[in-house]
Amino acid sequence: MHHRYLLIYRFLLVNMVAAAGLAMAWVHGWIDRVLASDSSRISVLIFAVFLVGLTLCAWRIIQISDGLNDLKRAQPAKNGRVAAYLATLTRVPEARRPVVAEGLKAKLYARASNVRYIADSLVLLGLIGTVVGFIVALSGVDQNRVADVSAVGPMVAQLLDGMAIALWTTLVGSILHIWLRLNYQILAGGTVTLVADLVARGEGDAV
């Protein structure tokens, strides 16, 4: 039943569209331009952090999807997390069930929040690249040699190099932040659904 994997399909759709955009940027030479212009290689670091976040998000989405599918079964898998939670909920007194439910919510939301933290760090890395770029640009300016015609060329070259670092790292960090945040929204939506269904199923089984 394909609707059982709707969460994974959404994840694949978003990333296929984004990957197509990345491929077009490669074809038109934008990726090569970034690599050539960013001498600090902060853009490469940002992309590496993004890949870590995307991989973690994919793994979490698979786990959430498995949990949702397990809940649809009349009898969840015995060794699964769903069965473990339901067993815990049925064993505790009724007065403590809300505490167990809140603990589950906090645990699942904490796992999802790791992806959000990585996504937000991409913007911060881009801002760090901006600062580094301005430092590189201004470090080449020597007030004592401004009147020297032979020194103007190297100073302008370093100024442009620093500005390229500042602008490209900011752009790369912002784009990859949006990309990963879209994936996080899919993960967050699936997590909310799983928590709600788990609590509802647990309350029903405990009655």
UniProtKB/TrEMBL annotation:
GO cellular component, one term: plasma membrane
KW Translocase (keyword) present: no
Domain MotA/TolQ/ExbB proton channel span(s) in chain numbering: 106-190
Annotated compartments: Cell membrane; Membrane
Membrane topology per record: Multi-pass membrane protein
Keyword GTP-binding: no
Keyword annotations: Cell membrane, Membrane, Protein transport, Transmembrane, Transmembrane helix, Transport
Pfam families named in the record: MotA_ExbB
Family, similarity comment: Belongs to the exbB/tolQ family.
Protein name, entry field: MotA/TolQ/ExbB proton channel domain-containing protein
Species for this entry: Tistrella mobilis
